[in-house]
Amino acid sequence: MAMAVAEARLRQDKVKKFEDFVDRRLKPDLVNAIAQRDNLFQQQKTFLDLKKNIENLEKNGVTSMRSMVNLGSEVYMQAEVPDTRHIFVDIGLGFHVEFTWQEALQFISVREA
């Protein structure tokens, strides 16, 4: 009987160690992985939206445009873009590069791969 109690206690201790490992290590790692995945999906969506916008500009032959720009805190201002053939793309780490439409589409296809 004492042997069965000792085995049950040993089993409970092992289960407790595994639960602690899951709570301390695996759950935070999972939360971090999910956050990174969501960030990657957001970047992919941004590039896909940019690609669609560039294709629409090319298709419609738009060389200038007017738009409402969010200045922050939902304050908008009307902006005019005199030449849409060159755009600035955020390439990461706070850097923006001026691209033509074709260069931007090539960059997007590389980033998507």
Automatic annotation (TrEMBL):
One of its GO terms (biological process) is response to cold. It comes from the Eukaryota. Gene3D superfamilies: 1.10.287.370. Pfam families: Prefoldin. This is Protein UXT homolog. It comes from Triticum aestivum (Wheat).
